[in-house]
Amino acid sequence: MEKITDQQRLKPWMGFALFAALMVIFMTVCRYMQMHWNLVGLVLTEAVFLSIAICFCLIRKVSIKEVFPVKKPKIRDLFGCLFLLLAGQSFSVIATLIVGILFPSWTSDAYELSSFLYSGNAVISFLIVAVTPAICEEAIHRGAILSCFRSLKDDRLIILIMAILFGINHMSPLRFLATAILGAVLSYVLVKKNNILLTALMHFANNAYSSIIGILGAKASQNSTPAAAFSLSSLGIYLIIGFMAPVFLVLGCMLLNPEKHKKIRFLFAGIASALMLVSGILLFSSSYMKKPICDCEISYTVTAEDPDTWMEFGVEEERDYSVTVIINCSKTADYRFTMEDASGNLIFDETLDSDLGIKTFTSTAHLPVGSYLTRIYAEDGSLNDHPEIRITVR
User: Burial of 183 by CB count in 10 Å (0-12 exposed, 13-18 middle, 19+ buried)?
Assistant: First the structure.
């Protein structure tokens, strides 16, 4: 790791002290601002991060240019960062799903955060989520804090420390591993290339992708349970989608640090990728190989006196279930599907679009043992329609 000119002014213990001060301010002042001023409070939080980083450099009298090194990136480095980011994204999603499956009570954190970030104007949310952290969080973490650890001889130790601190800073048990992985990837780039511009671009790209997914999924998350997204079948899908992550990781490291590259790493990466792909296929297919506990077909005529239909089923084993609804209608009409437990708690409430033909809805829910009630509500344009409905739970 490249040292700064006045490295003697920055010691490892100062990095831990700076992070501790950051967390105290974050949990008091910043939390107050976010609770009372919402997205404005989030912007001010990022501004606080940037201010702390700059003030720390001024107090310790070290070169700001060296603490926040900016260089013109090479094309090779950009491609290396891209592959590392793809790998980090895949590993982060998989890690989050595993934690959510093991600790389902933590999954509500994801939905509270999504509601907080994406309930308002989409453009403003995108700018706040993607732009400000790329500047302010990089300044405090890869800038001020990491510079305190530049005197350590083992680059791997620096990366590990920064990963843990970055994970802790996000104050989420569910997302700790995901943010720690991102922190490790960004810190690796800074350690090897000493260019905070690269990590800022990676941070922006990572958060931009997450914000777009969050904006598009904000409405859907309002009509589904947290457990719907954290299931073995979902884990299987993402293992399949991201099975090339180990190869991308090795490829990114090779492009960024070619002198330390060993060809045998591609062999290990290929084996890991194959294991991820096979595991994903097994997890995904196993959820559909199970015999359905409900496979009901309903056909009726929608009348003013009898517009809706319903169906009950029972669950004898608590686990994740796939719920599929197919409605074949002869008119351009709206239908709404709901499912609730015996206590009346709503699990699904989904409006199916009004296009002519087949309407479908598929999701996953963690269902405890008990009885459940599903309803199909015939809404606009459905009078005198003859829908054919199939509800499958497996």
Answer: buried
What pLDDT shows up at residue 359?
77
106 phi/psi in degrees, rounded to 5: -85, -10
Instruction: Give the number of other CB atoms < 10 A from CB of residue 211.
Output: 20
Q: How far is CA 130 from the centre of its chain?
A: 14
Q: What three-state secondary structure class fits 331?
A: coil
Residues 6+ apart with CB under 8 A from 216: none
Amino acid present at 150: R
Rounded CA-CA distance 84/193 in Å is 13
CB 356 within 8 A of CB 329: yes
Q: What is the 8-class DSSP label of residue 106?
A: G
Contacts of 108 (CB under 8 A, 6+ apart): 226
Closest CA to 214 of 93, 94, 132: 93
Q: Which residue type occupies 92? A: S
Q: Do residues 158 and 73 touch, judged by C-beta distance below 8 A?
A: no
pLDDT tens figures, 194-228:
999 999 999 999 999 988 887 776 544 444 444 45
- Token pair of 290 as six digits: 């199970």
Topology annotation, domain 294-393: Jelly Rolls (2.60.120)
H or E stretch at 196 = helix 196-222
Q: Are strands 357-367 and 319-329 parallel, antiparallel or unpaired?
A: antiparallel
| Contact yes or no for 302/377 (Cβ under 8 A) | no
Give the C-alpha distances (Å, rounded to integers) separating 306 from 47, 300, 349, 380, 391: 58, 9, 20, 14, 19
What the block records as the tokens of 101 is: 């499956």
The better pLDDT of the pair 179, 230 is held by 179
Give me the amino acid identity at 212.
I
The boundaries of every CATH 2.60.120.380 domain in the chain are: 294-393
Give CA–CA dist 381/88, Å, rounded: 47
Whose tokens are 């509601």? That residue is 115
Which residue in 175, 167, 40 sits closest to 114, CA to CA?
A: 175
How many angstroms separate the CA atoms of 190 and 198, rounded? 8
The pair of structure tokens assigned to 22 is 């950051």
